[in-house]
């Protein structure tokens, strides 16, 4: 069973507004959390007045409660049933020092309840709370509507998006990526700064490819671990015309990679592929990478570390697998369509007709018989979020671009993993990619999560983000 998401809840209050507003809001918020499977950490109504926060003493109590659950709280929801006390909210967050995303939600007034006994003034109070958080240097997220009730469908959509933002931010600040092997010599494009990533909480664990291949060569087809991995591969995909000897090679390599990830507690990998694997081991690693990505442990080829970081971010935003692709070809003379391609490592979710094959282009230089393990399959029509995270070493920053489009069912006769993408102002996007020195690799995800990624990467991670609209 998936662990419940835990949110800290701060209910702002000002005591010259009606107590019933705070009392009712607390009940509504807890009920909504229970409905959505959220574990709310909120002051008891006996600990402070109605469980709200107004004074510095109440802020201290709220902060202490949050500190007790700091390991679990991934975000804070600030509720303003009335104007609220902006210092109480800001002090609670400052003292708790959780460094997590914060959502500001304020209740609307009713036109027939603007008398002294029933008015809220939360429209105004929200501005004051945001002003104080800005002064304190605390980042926060706004709702689509300035004021909105918790049971409003629009707010529920906002809240679910906020939960995804929280997952992205927490995940990126603690991610561990395995860089297996050296980048291909011809691929300056996948250079990156390990130091800039580490400054942002992203750890890279390196390993020489010879260690992986050496351990794989020590295994035999009779080893239990090889049989186990082979069974998992056969259950995952049809093997087409792949020879049995090649399947054993693929399974041995898969076993070693699986152990390496477990040993180092890795969340993702970037693996050297061509041409060392084919020349020195005799197969492609694509099948293993596909299985990992499908199991939410994204894997990118050509040691594209920031590519797999992009895959991981999109996975956290959507809850579904990502794939690393090439911006590869124009689609006839359609200026808003292009071909996405790779020789074969996309997650199974993108490939309903998946099967193990070889890599014909790579085979021209290393021998097709040494390229089994690449996958063949066509991605059908799906929603599309695309994007790329990269370190810009001369500027000393992390930057990204993101956007949304569609994957289509347009005719496409070729091999490997392939898809057709339709993106508005695609030509303008390509101008941006080229002018800003981004890689030819991009990441795709079958979702509409660009807004979540923009909020996560720009507002909370502090990265330079371009959203293509």
From TrEMBL:
Molecular function in Gene Ontology: isomerase activity
Residue span, L-fucose isomerase C-terminal domain: 340-467
Keywords noted in UniProt: Carbohydrate metabolism, Isomerase
Pfam families: Fucose_iso_C
Isomerase found in the keyword field: yes
InterPro entries, per the entry: Fuc_isomerase_C, Fucose_isomerase_N/cen_sf
Name the UniProt record assigns to this protein: L-fucose/L-arabinose isomerase family protein
């Amino acid at each position: 069973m998936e662990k419940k998401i835990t949110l800290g809840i701060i209910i702002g209050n000002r005591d010259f507004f009606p107590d019933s507003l705070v009392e009712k809001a607390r009940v509504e918020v807890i009920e909504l959390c229970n409905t959505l499977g959220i574990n709310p950490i909120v002051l008891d109504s006996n600990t402070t007045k109605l469980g709200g926060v107004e004074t510095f003493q109440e802020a201290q109590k709220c902060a202490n409660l949050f500190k007790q659950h700091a390991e679990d709280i991934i975000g804070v929801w600030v509720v303003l049933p009335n104007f609220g006390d902006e210092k109480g909210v800001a002090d609670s967050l400052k003292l708790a020092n959780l460094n997590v995303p914060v959502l500001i939600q304020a209740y609307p007034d009713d036109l027939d309840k603007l008398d002294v006994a029933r008015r809220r003034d939360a429209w105004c109070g929200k501005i004051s709370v945001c002003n104080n958080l800005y002064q304190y240097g605390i980042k926060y997220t706004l709702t689509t509507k300035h004021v909105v009730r918790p049971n409003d469908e629009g707010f529920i959509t906002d809240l679910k998006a906020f939960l995804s933002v929280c997952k992205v931010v927490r995940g990126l600040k603690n991610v561990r990526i395995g860089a297996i092997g050296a980048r291909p010599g011809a691929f300056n494009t996948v250079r990156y700064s390990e130091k800039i990533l580490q400054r942002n909480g992203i750890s890279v664990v390196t390993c020489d490819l010879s260690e992986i291949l050496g351990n794989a060569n020590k295994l035999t087809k009779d080893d239990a671990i090889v049989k186990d991995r082979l069974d998992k591969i056969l259950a995952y995909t049809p093997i087409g015309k792949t020879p049995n000897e090649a399947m054993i090679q693929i399974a041995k390599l898969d076993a070693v990679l699986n152990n390496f990830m477990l040993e180092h507690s890795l969340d993702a990998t970037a693996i050297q592929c061509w041409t060392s694997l084919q020349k020195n081991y005799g197969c492609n690693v694509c099948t293993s990478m596909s299985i990992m990505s499908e199991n939410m442990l994204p894997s990118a080829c050509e040691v594209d570390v920031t590519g797999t970081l992009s895959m991981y971010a999109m996975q956290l935003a959507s809850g579904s697998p990502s794939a690393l692709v090439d911006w590869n070809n124009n689609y006839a003379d359609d200026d808003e369509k292009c071909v996405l391609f790779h020789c074969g490592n996309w997650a199974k979710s993108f490939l309903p007709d998946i099967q193990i094959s070889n890599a014909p282009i790579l085979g021209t230089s290393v021998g097709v018989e040494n390229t089994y393990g690449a996958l063949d399959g066509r991605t059908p029509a799906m929603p599309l979020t695309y994007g790329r995270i990269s370190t810009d070493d001369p500027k000393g920053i992390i930057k990204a671009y993101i956007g949304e489009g569609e994957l289509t069912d347009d005719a496409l006769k070729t091999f490997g993993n392939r898809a057709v993408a339709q993106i508005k102002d695609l030509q303008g996007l390509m101008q941006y990619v080229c002018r800003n020195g981004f890689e030819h690799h991009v990441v795709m995800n079958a979702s509409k999560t660009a807004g979540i990624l923009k909020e996560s990467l720009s507002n909370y991670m502090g990265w330079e983000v371009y959203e293509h609209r």
